[in-house]
Amino acid sequence: MYSRDQVYEPPTYLSLTSSFSEFFKRIYSFTKYPAIVYCLGFMNSGKTTLSLLFYYYFNQLYWKRVKLHYINALENYSDSEEKTLAEVANERLDSVLEEIRSHSRESLHFIVLDDFGFVIDKSAQAREFLYKIFRIRHITQKSKIIVWINAHYSKSLIPFFRSTPYRILTSITVQEIKQLSSDYLFPISDLWDYYYYMLEHSNRYIIYVNWWTISEIVDVTLDKKMKRRIMRLARRHNIEL
C-alpha cells in the first residue's frame, strides 16, 4: 500500500501534459478514420465523462457537425429478458448503423459504447458485435466515424483490441501494470510513469493516452465552466454520469 511518506523515483519517460486543448490539437492531426478507441478503467473513473469531453472538442473542430450516438449496454436491460446482453447490444448497434446510413450529412459520427466490458464473451452474438465494429468503415463513404468503447478492466476484451491504435487508461494500480503490459496493450515503462503521476497528483484527473503514434499522460481535470458544458451534453443525450 502506498504511503505519503514513501519515496519513489520520479517518472523518466513520459511527461505530464497539463493542457488538454493543446494535446487534443496534436492527436486530432494524427487521427485516422474510422477510429476505434478503447477506453479502459475502473468503475467511476470518468470514462463516460472523458468520452463526452472528446466529443465536445471534435464537435468544435468540425463546426458542430458531429452526431453523437450513445449506447449503454446495461441501460434498461433486465436479466428477465429472453434475449442475452450481447443480443440487445447488437440490436441497438444495428439501429445506430442504420441511422448513419440514412443520415450522412454530418461530418463525423461519434459512437459511444458504454459499459461494454459485460457484453463481450465467447458467444456468437458477441463475435457478431465485434465484427460489426471492425467493419464499420463500410457503413458510409460520406462521413467519418469514431467508435469509443468504455469498458471496465476485463481480460475477455483484451485479445480483441491488441491491434487497436487508440487506447486510453483512466485508472491504474500495480496489479494492472503487469496484466496490461503482458497482453501488449501498453508499454510497461509508460504504465509505471502513469502510476507515479497518479500518486503525485491524486487530487487531479490524470489519464494515459496511447493515440496512434502519440503516448502521453494528460491532465484532464475540468474547470467549472467545462464541467457545466459536459453536464449539459449529458442531460441533452440522457446520459448518466
Describe this structure in words.
The protein has seven helices and eight strands, in the order E-H-E-H-E-H-E-H-E-E-H-H-E-E-H. The protein is α/β, with parallel strands linked by helices and 241 residues long. The protein has one domain (16-236): P-loop containing nucleotide triphosphate hydrolases (Rossmann fold, 3-Layer(aba) Sandwich), CATH 3.40.50.300. Strands 1-8-7-6-2-5-4-3 form an eight-stranded mixed β-sheet, with helices on both faces. Helix 3 (85-102) packs parallel to helix 4 and helix 5 (174-182) packs antiparallel against helix 6. It is globular, with a radius of gyration of 18 Å. The relative contact order is 0.21. Residues 6-12 have low confidence and may be disordered.
In DSSP terms (H or I, runs of 4 or more residues), the helix count works out at: 7
Major β-sheet annotation: 8 strands, mixed
Number of strands: 8
> CATH homologous superfamily name?
P-loop containing nucleotide triphosphate hydrolases
Task: Output the radius of gyration.
Answer: 18 Å
| Amount of helix | 25-40%
- The helix-and-strand class reads alpha/beta
Look up the CATH topology. Answer: Rossmann fold
Q: Would you identify the CATH architecture? A: 3-Layer(aba) Sandwich
Distance between the termini: 29 Å
Q: How does the overall form come out from the CA principal axes?
A: globular
**Structurally, how many domains make up the residues?**
1
